[in-house]
Amino acid sequence: MPESEYVSALIRDLEQELPAVWGRKIQSIFIGGGTPSTLSPESYDELFSQLRARLTITPETEITMEVNPGTVDEHKLSEYRNIGINRLSIGVQSFDNDLLQRIGRIHDRKTAFNAVEFAHQAGFENMNLDVMFGLPTQTIEQGQSDIENAIALEPAHISYYELTIEPNTQFHNQPPTLPAENKMIQIQESGQTILRENGFQQYEVSAYAKDKQQCQHNLNYWQFGDYIGIGAGAHGKITSPENMNIIRRAKLRSPQAYIEKAGLDTSISSTRELSDNDRIFEFMMNALRLNDGFPIQLFSERTGLDTSNFSDAINKAMDQGLMEQTGEYLKPTKKGRTYLNNLTQLFIEN
Q1: Whole-model pTM above 0.85?
Q2: Are residues 296 and 330 in contact, defined by beta-carbon separation less than 8 angstroms?
Q3: 202, 221, 240: which is the final residue of a domain?
Q4: Mean pLDDT of 115-124
Q5: Looking at the domain assignment, is residue 19 inside a domain?
Q6: What is the domain range of residue 179?
Q7: Do 264 and 173 reside in the same domain of the chain?
Q8: Do 55 and 186 reside in the same domain of the chain?
Q9: Residues whose CB falls within 8 Å of the CB of residue 299, separated by 6 or more in sequence, listed in order
Q10: What are phi and psi of 87, to 5 degrees?
Q11: Which residues face 62 on adjacent strands?
Q12: CATH code of 44's domain
């Protein structure tokens, strides 16, 4: 697949999306899905030239790229930095070679260390490292070592999350031996303690950041904000300011089909308008992932609904010790964060 054709398709896709967001400020750009760091700096240079001609992008706009450690070097990262990408999210997952092999990663411990060092040398100060726990056969000591190695590389942000077995994957068809639940909890809590002791504050279920280094793009997502998605398999959510209709839509997943149809209505694989119940559940499913919860008025601002629509569910959550109100904020309790699925289920067709 020629890169130039894909970049041209992205721009046609963007032009189709632009009428829905005219006049809105661009707060963040997130380049993810697949392995975006395999695309050449020259292609990104062309892409961002076209983006800047159509969007208001400022030096303050957070621009994140997901990076696979095995696909970058210092020169490539320096070029990305010069183009305007100012934040990296590096998928380290683990620093243990045996564990990396067990989860099918193409990089090893040395490659992971090198990728982060290359990023520092290229001038990236805002960097996230992805670290998994609950890997096949992982011990508490291995979990602690992974977090300690990540912290030693001086990132501003660490995403620390449990391995999940997704449908239609090799792991789903041939499930690996995972740590027992009690050991899983010990690994997680041990890692959280180390993160806290080193100045990383948890602000979301799996997100830990140094002071004022929270990911702005993900915060917008968790606060039920709007975003457009361009690219093969991309998803977007847009709210109409005129009538507060909320539309989710997705693009064709096949890169070749996407290139052929980008910018046409046939490039959209699905469109769904959210019902009132959808809005309540999806808002809560996202906002309750945040440790600090959300200001009560944000619910109405983002859903177009009155707070009376979920008052019964809120009362149930409080009665069960899953939720609390602090001033103008509603937030999950420690118990609510532990049993988040139970908490969010209260908001299904409440």
Answers
A1: yes
A2: yes
A3: 221
A4: 96
A5: no
A6: 25-221
A7: no
A8: yes
A9: 283, 287, 305, 307, 310
A10: -145, 140
A11: 28
A12: 3.80.30.20
Q: Are 304 and 240 in contact (CB under 8 A)?
A: no
For 328, phi then psi, to 5°, come to -95, 10
Task: Kindly state whether residue 112 falls inside one of the protein's structural domains.
Answer: yes
Nearest residue to 336 via CA among 321, 316, 346, 314: 321
DSSP string, 221-270: HHTT--B---STT-EEEEE-TTT--EEEEEE-S-HHHHHHHTTSGGGEEE
**Could you give the CA distance from residue 159 to residue 149 in angstroms, rounded to a whole number?**
14
Indicate whether 168 pLDDT > 60.
no
* Cα-based torsion angle of the residue sequence 19, 22, 24, 26 in order, rounded to the nearest 10 degrees: 70
pLDDT of 172 higher than 70 = no
- Look at residue 101 and tell me if it is in a domain: yes
Helix (H, G, I), strand (E, B) or coil at 70: helix
Distance CA 225, CA 237 (A): 8
CATH number at residue 328: 1.10.10.10
CA–CA separation, 152 and 172 (whole Å): 33
Decide if 98 is inside a domain: yes
Whether 215 and 269 map to the same domain: the answer is: no
Render pLDDT for 302-343 as a digit per residue (tens, 0 to 9).
999 998 888 899 999 999 999 999 999 999 999 999 899 999
What does the pLDDT read at residue 114? Answer: 96
Which of 89, 88, 82, 10 has the alpha carbon at shortest distance from 45? 82
